[in-house]
Amino acid sequence: MAEKDMTEKTLESYNDVFADIINVLFFGGKEVVKEEELEQAVMRSIYKTDGKLREQERDTAKYWRKHNIRISLFGLENETEPESDMPIRVFGYDGASYR
Questions:
Q1: Residues 44, 55: contact at Cβ < 8 Å?
Q2: Which of 5, 23, 58, 66 is 20 to 30 A from residue 83's alpha carbon, by CA?
Q3: Considering the chain, what is the average pLDDT of its residues?
């Protein structure tokens, strides 16, 4: 499982691959997001709860910037099996991604 996850993260780290994935998922395959418009977002954050430090790490996250304006934050989380708490976790990831 870890090997598959590393392979997915490595492929998604390339802007051309990431742009293709986003364009297929969100824009029906039309080239709307271009690889040169993507920039790496913060993927690791640390927070404190119950007096303990915790860490959260995204699989892949990139900002879409066009004409010096951040249009969107796209994040991908690779899951083999659905996890019911994933939407809540992603909210936390998105909130921590702002820099």
A1: yes
A2: 23
A3: 85
